[in-house]
Amino acid sequence: MDVATVREHASELPREPGVYQFLEGDTVRYVGKAVDLRARVRSYADPRSNRIGNMVARADSLDFAVTDTETQALLLEANLIKRYQPRYNVRLKDDKSYPLVQVTGHTFPRIEITRDPDRAGATVFGPFTNKSTVETVVKALRETYGIRGCSDHKFANRDRPCLDHDLGLCTAPCTGEIGREAYLGDVESVERFLGGEVDVLARPLRREMEAAAQSHEFERAANLRDRLDAVESFHGGDADAITSQTDERTVDVLGAAVEGERATVARLHSERGQLVDRDHHSLSVPDGDDVAAVFGGFIPQFYAERDLPDALLLSERPDDVDVMEWLETEGVAVRVPGAGREATLVDLALKNARRGSGNPDELRALADALSLPSAERIEGFDVSHAQGSSVVGSNVVLVGGSPEKGDYRRKKLTEKNDDYANMHDLIHWRAKRAVEGRDDRPDPDLLLIDGGQGQLDAAREALDDVEWDVPAVGLAKAEEIVVTPTATYNWPNDAPQLHVLQRVRDEAHRFAVQYHQTLRDDVSTELDDVSGVGPQTRRKLFRRFGSLDGIRGASDDELREVDGVGEKTVTALRRRL
Asked: What is the Cα–Cα distance from 6 to 119, expressed in whole angstroms?
C-alpha cells in the first residue's frame, strides 16, 4: 500500500473513536486503535519506523470498526489482537479476551455473551471489562423480554417449552408460544437498550422493584435494586469499569525481559502487603519492540476478564498513552519505583522474567516429542475419591506453561469406586460441553490424564463417544512414564518436556484433592448425632478412614488413635453406627 492509497483510505474514514486493521490478503497484519480514525490512519502515510513502514508496504487493504468510546476502542483492539495474533503487534497468547454481547441473526434471534463473535447477521455490543455485570444485565434482559439463550440444537424440534420458559427467561418461540413478529419486537427493545437506551430496561425493573416493596417482599425488592443499579450504570461513561480502591489492597508487580521476537512478563501479586501469587507469561513481539512497548500491549490483553489491581508497579512505564489514560480512569495507580521495598519487588519480578524466558523451550520440546503443532495450551484431569465416596474430578489449564486459574473447572461425579469409569465420565463431561458449544474456553492443544494406560484408554473412549478430536496422553505417577495411543516414553528426569507434563499433572491432582476434601468435610452424616463428635473430630475421622464404612470397620484401638476420640466417644460411635 503506497502513500497515496493510505491517504485515500483515510479520507473515507469517520472522525470517531474505533479500531483499524491493515490486511495482507485475508491475513490481519496490524491492529490499532484511535480517538479519530481518519487522522490516525492518515499518519501511516509517513510511518514512524522502518518496521511500521514495512507493514504498510505489505498491506493491500484496510478494515475498521467504530466504537462509542475511547475505552471501548482500547478493549476491542485487545480482543482483535488476541483473536488474529497480528505479526506486527505485541501478542499475549493466553486466550483471554473481553466479553461482548451478541444478538444473533437467526429467524428467532438469541442473546449470548461471547468472546468470539463470528455468526452471519449478528449484532455485537461491547467490549466490556466486567463480565459479572454483563451477566446480570443479560439475565435482566431475558427476564424482561424473554429472548432465548439456548443453542440451535436445543431450540430445534421441540414439542413443549423448556425450563427457561418455566423460569420466566424465555417466551418459547420454539413451540409457538409467541409469534415471530411479537418476538422480533422484543428483540428490537433489547438491541435498543444495548445501544444506549437505558430506560428500555430500567423502567420495567423499577416498576417491579416498587411493586415488590409495596407488597413487603423486601428481599426481592433488594435484589431488583441491585440489578437496577447494574443496569443504570451499564452505559454511564465507561460504567462497566472496575471500581477503584484507594488503600491499594491489591498490587501487581510486573517485570519484562525481551529476547528477539519473544518476551516474558513475570507478575508478582500482593494482597494487603503479602505476596500471595506469582506467574509468568510468554508473548510474541515484533522485532525491535522494547519493554515499554511490551507493557503497552500486555496490560490490556492480560487484564481481560481479570480484576485490575489497585496499583501496578512496573520496571518501565508503558509507551501507550491510551493505556495509561485507561488505567487512570479505572483508578489504578501506576508507579515505576526507583528505591525502597517497591523497587526491590520490581527487581524480583525482573529476575523471574529472565528465568522464565526459557519456558517456551519446554513447550517446543513437548510439542516436538509428541509430534504436535503446538503445546501452548494444556488441560489436565484427575479424579479424587475415598473408596468410591465424594467422587470429584478436576480440570486445570496451563497456558504457556503457567496456570490459567480463571479457566479451572471441577465436577462432582457419580459415586463409584472405579478409577477408569470415573475418568471416562469426567472426560465425557468436558468433551460434550466443548462439542455442544457450552464451554466458552478454547480447545486445548493437549489433554493430560493423571494415570497410566487404563485411564488413558477410558479418556480416549469418552473422546470417541463425543467425537471431540483433541490429542490426549497419560502420565503415571510412580514410574513417570508418558503413555500415548501409539507409544510409551520413559524420558530422562531432566527432560524439559517431562517437566511441563509433571506441572500439569501435579496441579490437576492438587485441585482434585482440594475439592474432594471440601466436599467430604462439609457433608452432613450420621456422625452429626454422635455425642462428643464435633466438626473437627468428624473431619479427622474422615481423613483417617475415608468414609462411614471405613469408620464402621475400624477397631476400637484405631478409633482411639484419632485425636479427640476417647472411650466415651468410641462407645457412642459403636452405639450409633
From this structure: 30
The pLDDT tens digits of the residues spanning 161-201 come to 888 888 888 999 999 898 988 899 888 888 888 877 777 77
Helix (H, G, I), strand (E, B) or coil at 408: coil
Choose among 462, 464, 383: nearest CA to 430. 462
> At 445, is the pLDDT very low, low, confident or very high (cuts 50, 70, 90)?
very high
Question: How deeply is 339 buried, as exposed, middle or buried, from its count of CB atoms within 10 A (0-12, 13-18, 19+)?
Answer: exposed
Residue 574, Ramachandran bin (φ over 0: left; ψ between -120 and 50: alpha; else beta):
alpha
Query: 434: alpha, beta or left, given left = phi > 0 and alpha = psi -120 to 50?
Result: alpha
Sheet holding 18-24, edge to edge: 27-34, 18-24, 61-66
Per-residue pLDDT for 302 more than 80?
Answer: yes
Residues 6+ apart with CB under 8 A from 42: 6, 7, 10, 11
- Bridge partners of residue 281, in order along the sequence: 265
557 torsion bin: left (phi>0), alpha (psi -120 to 50), beta (else): alpha
Which of 90-94, 216-220, 432-436 bottoms out in mean pLDDT, i.e. has the lowest? Answer: 90-94
> Residues with Cβ < 8 Å from 349, sequence gap 6 or more?
253, 254, 255, 266, 267, 268, 313, 315
Name the phi and psi angles at 23, rounded to 5. -120, 145
Give, in degrees to the nearest 5, the angle at Cα 552 between 550 and 558: 75
Question: 527, 531, 516: which is closest to 554 by C-alpha?
Answer: 527
- DSSP H or E segment with residue 85: none
Inter-residue contact 481 to 473 (CB < 8 Å) = no
42 vs 13: CA distance, rounded Å = 10
Query: Which three cell numbers mark 387?
Result: 473408596
A 10 A CB-CB count for 89 gives 26
Q: 425 and 393 in contact (C-beta within 8 Å)?
A: yes
Q: What's the rounded Cα separation, in Å, for the pair 38 and 16?
A: 8
Strands 311-314 and 250-259, sheet pairing: parallel
* Concatenated DSSP letters of 113-156: EES----TT-EEE---S-HHHHHHHHHHHHHHH--B---HHHHT
3-class DSSP assignment, residue 381: strand
Query: Are 221 and 227 a contacting pair, CB within 8 Å?
Result: no
